[in-house]
Amino acid sequence: MSGRLYENLKRYSDSDFYPFHMPGHKRNKESGPLNEFFRQDITEIDGFDNLHQPETIIRDAQYRAAQLYHSKETYFLINGSTSGILSAVSAIAGRGNKLIIARNCHKAVYHAAFLNHMELRYVSPAVNEEYDIAGEITASQIEKEICSITEQAGISALNAGDEIAGVVITSPTYEGIVSDIRTIADLVHQYHLPLIVDQAHGAHFGFHPSYPENAVSQGADFVIHSVHKTLPAPTQTALLHRNGELTDGERLKKYLRIYQSSSPSYLLMAGIDEALFLVKREGKDRLEQLLHFRNELFHALEHCKCIRVCPDTEPGKLVISVKNSSVTGKQLYQILREKYHLQMEMASGTYVLAILTMMDTEEGVKRLINALLEIDAGLQQDREENVPMSFSKQLPDAKMNIWDAFLASCRDMDIRDAEGEIAADFVNLYPPGIPLLVPGEVITKQVLDIIMEYHKHDYTVSGIDDNKVKVVVLG
After folding, report:
1. 283-377, which class in CATH?
2. 418-436: pLDDT as tens digits
3. Which are the contacts of 275, defined by CB distance < 8 A and separation ≥ 6?
4. 389-420 burial, b if ≥16 CB within 10 A, otherwise e?
């Protein structure tokens, strides 16, 4: 059996095979309103391969994906980018017990460190003060941390792998800021360390000259792409690419079997395959159209008195700022949703985030432009009270390892009384899921002020329940 996954699923659903196997809906039209969806929903039956040991159509689909992204090996992920991050970090664990990560990594990176008892060492992104967003990570920051770790261990920096398992960064960030992956990859490889790039929001990179290259082409060892975030694919579909000689493919596959479902959805896998087929066929033209939409929006909004769009992001992200105006990011988010029926991706203190993809339409972008122009006309400048950024510029001190704190006895404490206590759980604004506090860190006044301010303005802060935070019980 060959060809695209969906073609084979459609052919099978139209056949007279009767299913004496899972799933329980049996492709029966009486299964409810999703019966059309169920028609191509199968399990690992004869002729349809096995995600965890692919030999035919899934192997071929993954090979096509690897060719598209110029990767040595590519794996389909049906448990989202999270499963790819967990697998990649676990696959390098054991090289050393320390993991250098960008502080603005997704919480899945922290979870992977917890599961593998890894000591986290941070590099913090620069801060774009004008738009209140995290900036890029540089190679010099990473090299400084490598040298600091090896110096403390009393070993040569060239033996960094004895202490350090690898490096993990996010590029692009949730807001669309891109780091120089090629330079970072070259740097960490000088120290014989693998580089993992969470490029969940960059699956569209590398298919148009006006967009960044994808991290695979730039030399990263593991790259994770969320296909569903920026390509036309179902939610929780993603890709994991492996490259270079610093990682172990067999070890990676062991962890993929652990972190992925043993009953992978063929509809999700077919969704990945179809999305990549469209990218190969139409991606460049559609990304050109996205650039046209973005330029149209920038031109239309260039004379706004309050609303500004950050020019420093990759083309698919719009950071729409209302900093120093009479509304907060959350208020702009609500106005766009309730009055104009425009659903943004997320709201932060002083901006909203909108995502553009190759599947956006002229009509949708024009609606956003007209709404923002109308809102801007009613705004006033120089708002006295600013909502803080969604991250702390100064890292809290870590008093315990992440795994010890996460498993320690804990109690709930009113956040107003928690200064100086040790966090027992993650605290983050969601989305994007970047921790304000990590288990084991001391709860500082700066972080508490951020949490309180977000609560005051009705933002969702995960890890805070009924104004209480979980703290470690010592002694």
Report:
1. alpha beta
2. 999 999 999 987 777 788 8
3. 227, 231, 232, 233, 237
4. bbbbeeebebebbbbebbebebeebebeebee
Distance CA 275, CA 433 (A): 26
pLDDT at 104 over 90: yes
Q: CA angle, 44 as apex, 41 and 45 as ends, to 5°? A: 95
Look-up of token digits 């997320």: 346
Specify whether the CB–CB gap between 254 and 87 falls below 8 A: no
State both tokens at 325.
Answer: 């105006």
**Peptide bond before residue 232 is cis, with ω within 30 degrees of 0:** no
Give tens-digit pLDDT for 228-239.
999 999 999 999
Tokens of 83: 């499963």
Q: What is the pLDDT of residue 42?
A: 83
Q: How far is CA 345 from CA 96, 175, 317, 329, 330, in A?
A: 37, 10, 10, 12, 11
Lowest mean pLDDT among 191-200, 307-316, 339-348, 395-404: 395-404
Q: Which residues does residue 402 pair with via DSSP β-bridges, in sequence order?
A: none
Delimit the CATH 3.90.1150.150 region(s) of the chain.
283-377
Query: Exposed (0-12), middle (13-18) or buried (19+): which is 209, by Cβ within 10 Å?
Result: exposed
State the sign of the Cα–Cα–Cα–Cα dihedral 32, 38, 44, 50. Answer: negative
**Cβ-contact 180, 138 below 8 angstroms:** yes
Label residue 210 by pLDDT band (50, 70, 90).
very high
* Stretch(es) of the chain classified as CATH 3.90.105.10: 402-472
Tell me which CATH homologous superfamily contains domain 402-472.
Molybdopterin biosynthesis moea protein, domain 2 (3.90.105.10)
The two three-digit tokens of residue 66, written as one number:
């690897």
Say how many C-beta atoms besides its own lie within 10 A of residue 436's C-beta: 25
Per-residue model confidence (pLDDT) at position 289: 98
Q: Check residue 55 and give left, alpha or beta (phi > 0: left; psi -120 to 50: alpha).
A: alpha
Express each pLDDT in 143-187 by its tens digit. 999 999 999 999 999 999 999 999 999 999 999 999 999 999 999
**What is the predicted pLDDT for the residue at 386?**
58
